[in-house]
Amino acid sequence: MPETDDARASGELRIENAHRELLDQVLDKWSLSVLNELCERPCRFNDLRRAIPTVTQKSLTATLRRLERNGIVEREVVSSRPVAVEYRITPLGKTMRRPVDVLLEWATAHMPEIERARDAFDDGLD
Amino acid sequence: MPETDDARASGELRIENAHRELLDQVLDKWSLSVLNELCERPCRFNDLRRAIPTVTQKSLTATLRRLERNGIVEREVVSSRPVAVEYRITPLGKTMRRPVDVLLEWATAHMPEIERARDAFDDGLD
DNA sequence: CAGAATCCTTCACGATACTG
DNA sequence: CAGTATCGTGAAGGATTCTG
Question: Signal peptide span per the entry (chains A, B) (predicted)?
Fold first, then answer.
């Protein structure tokens, strides 16, 4: 299914469509927050809503479905009185933790530098 | 590396607004492709267009401006005959390489597993 | 409790045309 | 060559309402 792009292999990691598509699915607006919660403990739907107060129900549902489809989280329906649904991170989901951590560490470490760059840019506009 | 998967102790990976905002700026649709090119060599505008054939001029301009504002790439105007503009990666930009590589390595390594998960999900729809 | 269904606004992105 | 300017569209996401 991936069209063979001409062999302009740059020796390093190339960004393919599949990469881009995957990152869009698992690194989107709310996924990291959800993953962060589920890495610590299984959560029910409303647990997640409380943990991430700014997410809407619709977006949370969509995020969870997407993550579930990609095998990152698991959904279990507990047939109790008022239905309970528990979300858990999968083993595959746990493997995301390291790359995400590295990313966030980078972001945290370089935030000041980046803010200075923004100020300089916005100020002078070259 | 170390286990003790005590999530609380190990990863203070809280997602803050600033994190989210930054990732949106530097991990957007085209940034990784641009970074990938500029990591290898300085490029002129049309070099980048050729290297990333699917990007439109408008999106490429926007991407470059965004990366420049965040201090990730540098823009130099060479006052030659028809104006030449060279884009280069900055030292700050180079520090992005490792987190991005880790991310792409993860994506590459787990792609098959993820595709199986997608197929299973789309098939059964549980 | 855990969503589904609707409506609505924003805006990212593409397509196209023009310019110093 | 390296953009800017405009227009148009689809999709993401918020707000709100309803339900098994």
Answer: none
